[in-house]
């Protein structure tokens, strides 16, 4: 998490969201093939990585690589917001509840772990939608 406390927390949040969207879009083809491998789609596992790319292009076109990408991008905004908000709240609770801890990497580790878990808990349905969309294959 960003450590700057200069009053630009909202700006840093939106900067991260805007920077994250192109990354998800660039990685989307690999994510799609990964999901097809993980879900044990036999027709994709038997032909390997390059064969899977070719099969998607032939059966679904280039846009087939981006199936589920919209849900993935839609998940970024609430995930980042919840993660950032929860991190600050958990950090504050830990500092007030355990004054002997002070600052440092342990505080950041615990607050980051709890905030990441909180964000995933609330955005998991969107992740499930993304996976189900990416799992579908046109024949």
Q: Would you give an account of this structure?
A:
- Solcar repeats lie at residues 7-93, 103-139.
- Belongs to the mitochondrial carrier (TC 2.A.29) family.
- Pfam families: Mito_carr.
- It is found in: Membrane.
- It is a single chain.
- With 139 residues, the chain is mostly helical.
- It has helices at residues 9-38, 42-45, 48-60, 69-97, 105-135.
- The protein has a single domain (10-135), classed as Mitochondrial carrier domain (Mitochondrial carrier fold, Alpha/alpha barrel), CATH 1.50.40.
- The chain is 77% helix and 0% strand.
- The N and C termini lie far apart (43 Å).
Secondary-structure blueprint of this entry?
Layout: H1 9-38, H2 42-45, H3 48-60, H4 69-97, H5 105-135
Low-confidence stretches: 1-5
How do the SSEs run, as a string of H and E?
HHHHH
Number of domains: 1
Distance linking N and C termini? 43 Å
Give a quick summary of the entry.
With 139 residues, the chain is mostly helical. It has helices spanning 9-38, 42-45, 48-60, 69-97, 105-135.
Which features would summarize this protein structure in a list?
mainly alpha; Mitochondrial carrier fold; elongated; 77% helix; 5 helices; disordered N terminus; 139 residues; MCP_transmembrane
């Amino acid at each position: 998490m960003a450590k700057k406390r200069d009053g630009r927390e909202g700006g840093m949040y939106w900067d991260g969201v805007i920077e994250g969207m192109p990354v998800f879009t660039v990685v989307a083809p690999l994510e799609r093939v990964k999901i097809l491998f993980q879900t044990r789609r036999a027709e994709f596992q038997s032909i390997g990585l390059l064969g899977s790319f070719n099969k998607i292009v032939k059966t679904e076109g280039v846009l087939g690589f981006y199936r589920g990408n919209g849900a993935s991008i839609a998940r970024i905004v609430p995930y980042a917001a919840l993660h950032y908000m929860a991190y600050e709240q958990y950090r504050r609770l830990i500092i007030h509840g355990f004054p002997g801890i002070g600052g440092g990497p342990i505080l950041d580790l615990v607050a980051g772990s709890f905030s990441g878990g909180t964000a995933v808990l609330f955005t998991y349905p969107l992740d499930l939608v993304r996976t189900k969309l990416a799992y579908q294959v046109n024949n």
